[in-house]
């Protein structure tokens, strides 16, 4: 109650013409248990206060009592759509701390898996974006294509979403014999299917009207709020970790960091579609050249990090994902902190959506591509 | 009884006489009302079920899936099963709801739907009321439904419902204009508001073709505005589930929800039936000028079949809109109406006047 009063009575004036609506924790388009306290005047959004923590699962605290290989299993429960990137971040952090050099084969496999995960994530984002705007058909088009990627995952590592494929020192198993063949078949097919996405949604007049010049985020604001990933690049913020701080096989491949300076919903939408093309391009460069060799280096039975602080960041499908480990030399980390892209991106929502309509709020939230467990951890 | 699939007027007349011989005029009227009422209810229930099934199949086809397949052959019994489920569901009312209005709202929506159905000519002689102001009557009673929606949104005491209802109110009242004006265009061409006369005067050529470009424009506007008036996608702002959970009927459950649901589908039928009657020749077969053999073959198909073929065609179009377009925003929807459709419509009426004055349509 007090919280409600506080917002209504903000700036010394009682807004009798404004009212509060709780969007969530149960709401179809917050895509999880996110609660937005929205102050509205009629249809117009005046202020958005995100309330997080409804599915806070204490992952960072749990990590303190787990060994490093076990920590990995928790990371893909956070941003379940970038599961492999999160796993990889922890692995890279541990490997850097122990100064283990992984074989090239591992680097290639990890990068391919990264990009496949990114594709699957962007496909799902596209489905949901359409659905949030009321175009329900997109949902099935996106899922249709995503299924192929999940099948490839399942064949290689047994899981479809929470992969747990990376382990410190390599990957858990070698790739399946069919892997290369199926990935290539998928690329050929998806290159044909991707233009359908544009035909169905991008060119639509209503869609254009709903996204152009809506939810503007300036470059300064994007940097100030730490908005990363396609959402940040949509405002012209060059923040691709794959470019600026390359890891795994990214230094070896040619790809473009797509940027857009318009900063509106459409820019963020367009960038994700273009990123899908880039991901396909990256996989194409790697898939035929996976070097022979071991799929993992032999690690000690109990992984112990030297005393100190270690940080590793990777580019997840949503932005910059960081792992910060403080070690006191034991087999469990002393403290773990994850820098999740969704958390930073969410809090820029007020900047973007204030002044727009409720319908735009949903659309803008969709262009941020939020995954709630990623925010709450 | 003189049953004739091409002309029902004989049959209904004979039935009337048959009742009159055996009963007093008052009893006859009561019996006839009952028969008609029951038939309409049956029709609404069955056609509503069919439309829900059709929608699910059409939507499935657009979305590359099969739709309901388990209950009955190709899932034909699915909607019946769903309906039984809705009947058995508990009716949950919000504690702070306005009880009277909350319970009244679904009935108003339903009654408006039934009222509008009364004047639709299904086939020759198969029309309950043949007013001389038939079109006027339809536009009048179909806008009663919005009261039900507003009441539902208001009485639920839920902010989402209220936003949905207000959107719906603004939208339906605005698009009412376009619907009426596009119908006025055709009234000018037909010179009558009586639906049977309108159908009869399309014997040689449908108004869609007869009225040249103005009636084509009117048809397109009628389809857009009709879709908006039935609160269907891309104009389904009132129940925009990604924004307002379910809009004005968020708080309704069980059979009361089913009323809103059914009313939406039957309203779609009414819009399609009006489009059919006014633009596509109603139950009249398709005739092409003087190609006698073709016209004879077309005449062989009963009017009832023609009517439903056309109606289903229009309904398919409306479903097609819903499953391909994203939703408009509330200000865009009003802009579309007030800044584009309305001026176009007014100019279009002038054009139609010119066509009629110059006798270009004859």
Structural class of chain B: mainly alpha
Oligomer: heterodimer
Order of helices and strands of chain A: HEEEHHHHHEEHHHHHHEEEHHHH
Number of strands of chain B: 0
Detail the poorly predicted runs of chain B: none
Count of DSSP H/I helices of chain B: 15
Radius of gyration of chain B: 21 Å
Helical run tally of chain A: 16
Strand content of chain A: 5-15%
Task: Give your account of this protein's structure.
The complex is a heterodimer of chains A (377) and B (362). Chain A folds into 2 domains: 2-51, no CATH class; 59-376, Cytochrome-c3 Hydrogenase, chain B (Orthogonal Bundle), CATH 1.10.645. Helices cover 48% and strands 12% of the residues of chain A. Chain A has helices at residues 2-8, 59-63, 68-75, 83-98, 104-132, 138-157, 179-202, 205-211, 219-224, 229-233, 241-244, 265-287, 341-347, 349-353, 358-368, 372-376; strands at residues 19-23, 35-41, 44-51, 166-167, 170-171, 308-316, 319-327, 335-339. In chain A, helix 3 runs antiparallel to helix 4. Chain A is globular, with a radius of gyration of 21 Å. Chain B has one domain. In chain B, 69% of the residues lie in helices and 0% in strands. Chain B has 15 helices and no strands. Chain B is globular, with a radius of gyration of 21 Å. The model of chain B has no long low-confidence stretch (mean pLDDT 84). Classes of the chains: A alpha+beta (377), B mainly alpha (362). Chains A and B meet through helix 5, helix 6, helix 8 and helix 15 of A and helix 7, helix 11 and helix 15 of B.
Question: What topology emerges from the helices and strands here?
Answer:
The complex is a heterodimer of chains A (377) and B (362).
Chain A: H1 2-8, E1 19-23, E2 35-41, E3 44-51, H2 59-63, H3 68-75, H4 83-98, H5 104-132, H6 138-157, E4 166-167, E5 170-171, H7 179-202, H8 205-211, H9 219-224, H10 229-233, H11 241-244, H12 265-287, E6 308-316, E7 319-327, E8 335-339, H13 341-347, H14 349-353, H15 358-368, H16 372-376
Antiparallel strand pairs in A: 1-2, 2-3, 4-5, 6-7, 7-8
Helix pairs in contact in A: 3-4, 4-5, 5-6, 5-12, 5-15, 6-7, 7-12, 12-15
Chain B: H1 9-22, H2 25-62, H3 78-88, H4 99-117, H5 134-142, H6 145-155, H7 159-190, H8 195-200, H9 207-210, H10 212-229, H11 241-244, H12 254-279, H13 292-300, H14 303-324, H15 330-357
Helix pairs in contact in B: 2-3, 2-12, 2-14, 3-12, 4-5, 4-6, 4-12, 6-7, 7-10, 7-15, 10-12, 10-15, 12-14
């Amino acid at each position: 109650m007090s919280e409600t009063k506080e917002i209504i009575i903000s700036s010394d004036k009682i807004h009798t013409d404004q009212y509060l609506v709780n969007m969530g924790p149960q709401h179809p388009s917050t895509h999880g248990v996110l609660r937005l306290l929205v102050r509205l005047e009629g249809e117009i959004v005046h202020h958005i206060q995100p309330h997080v923590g409804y599915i806070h699962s204490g992952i960072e605290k749990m990590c303190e009592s787990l060994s490093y290989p076990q920590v990995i299993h928790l990371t893909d429960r956070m941003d379940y759509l970038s599961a492999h990137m999160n796993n990889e971040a922890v692995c890279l952090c541990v490997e850097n701390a122990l100064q283990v050099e992984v074989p090239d084969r591992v680097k290639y496999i990890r990068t391919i898996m990264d990009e496949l995960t990114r594709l699957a994530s962007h496909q799902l984002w596209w489905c949901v974006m359409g659905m949030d705007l009321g175009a329900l058909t997109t949902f099935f088009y996106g899922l249709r294509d995503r299924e192929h990627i999940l099948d490839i995952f399942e064949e290689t590592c047994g899981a479809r979403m929470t992969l747990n494929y990376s382990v410190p020192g390599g990957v858990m198993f070698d790739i399946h014999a069919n892997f290369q063949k199926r990935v290539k078949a998928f690329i050929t097919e998806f290159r044909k299917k991707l233009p359908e996405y544009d035909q169905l949604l991008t060119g639509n007049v209503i869609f254009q009207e709903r996204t152009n010049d809506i939810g503007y985020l300036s470059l300064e604001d994007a940097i100030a709020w730490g908005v990363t990933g396609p959402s940040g690049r949509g405002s012209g913020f060059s923040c691709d970790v794959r470019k600026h701080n390359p890891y795994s096989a990214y230094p070896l491949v040619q790809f473009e960091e797509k940027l857009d300076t318009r900063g509106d919903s459409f820019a963020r939408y367009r960038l994700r579609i273009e990123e899908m093309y880039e991901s396909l391009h990256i996989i194409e460069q790697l898939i035929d050249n996976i070097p022979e060799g071991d799929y993992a280096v032999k690690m000690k039975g109990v992984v112990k990090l030297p005393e100190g602080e270690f940080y590793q960041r990777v580019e997840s499908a949503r932005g910059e994902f960081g792992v910060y480990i403080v070690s006191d030399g034991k087999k469990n980390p002393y403290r773990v902190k994850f820098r999740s892209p969704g958390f930073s991106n969410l809090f820029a929502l007020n900047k973007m959506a204030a002044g727009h309509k409720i319908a735009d709020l949903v659309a803008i939230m969709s262009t941020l591509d939020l995954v709630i467990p990623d925010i709450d951890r | 009884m003189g049953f004739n699939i091409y002309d029902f007027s004989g049959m209904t007349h004979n039935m009337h006489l048959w009742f009159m011989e055996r009963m007093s005029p008052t009893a006859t009227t009561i019996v006839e009302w009952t028969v008609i009422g029951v038939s309409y209810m049956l029709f609404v229930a069955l056609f509503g079920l069919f439309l829900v099934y059709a929608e699910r199949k059409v939507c499935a086809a657009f979305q590359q899936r099969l739709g309901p397949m388990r209950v009955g052959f190709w899932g034909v019994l699915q909607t019946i099963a769903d309906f039984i489920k809705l009947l058995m569901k508990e009716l949950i009312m919000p504690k702070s709801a306005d009880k009277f209005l909350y319970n009244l709202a679904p009935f108003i929506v339903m009654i408006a739907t039934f009222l509008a159905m009364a004047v639709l000519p299904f086939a020759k002689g198969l029309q309950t009321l043949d007013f001389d102001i038939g079109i006027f009557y339809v536009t009048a009673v179909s806008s009663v439904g919005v009261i039900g929606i507003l009441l539902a949104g208001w009485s639920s005491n839920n902010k989402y419902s209220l936003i949905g209802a207000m959107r719906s109110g603004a939208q339906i009242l605005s698009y009412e204009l376009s619907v009426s004006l596009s119908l006025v265009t055709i009234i000018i061409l037909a010179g009558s508001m009586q639906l049977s006369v309108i159908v009869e005067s399309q014997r040689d050529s449908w108004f869609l073709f007869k009225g040249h470009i103005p009636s084509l424009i009117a048809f397109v506007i009628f389809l857009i505005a009709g879709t908006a008036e039935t609160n269907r996608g891309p104009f389904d702002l009132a129940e925009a589930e990604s924004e307002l959970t379910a809009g004005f009927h968020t708080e309704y459950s069980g059979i009361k929800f089913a009323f809103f649901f059914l009313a939406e589908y039957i309203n779609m039928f009414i819009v399609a039936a009006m489009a059919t009657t006014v633009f596509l020749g109603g139950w009249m077969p398709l005739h092409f000028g003087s190609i006698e053999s073709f016209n004879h073959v077309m005449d062989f198909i009963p009017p009832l079949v023609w009517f439903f073929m056309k109606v289903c065609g229009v309904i398919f179009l409306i479903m097609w809109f819903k499953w391909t377009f994203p939703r408009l925003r509330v200000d865009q929807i009003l802009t579309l109406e007030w800044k584009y459709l309305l001026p176009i419509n007014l100019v279009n009426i002038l054009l139609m006047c010119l066509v009629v004055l110059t006798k270009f349509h004859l």
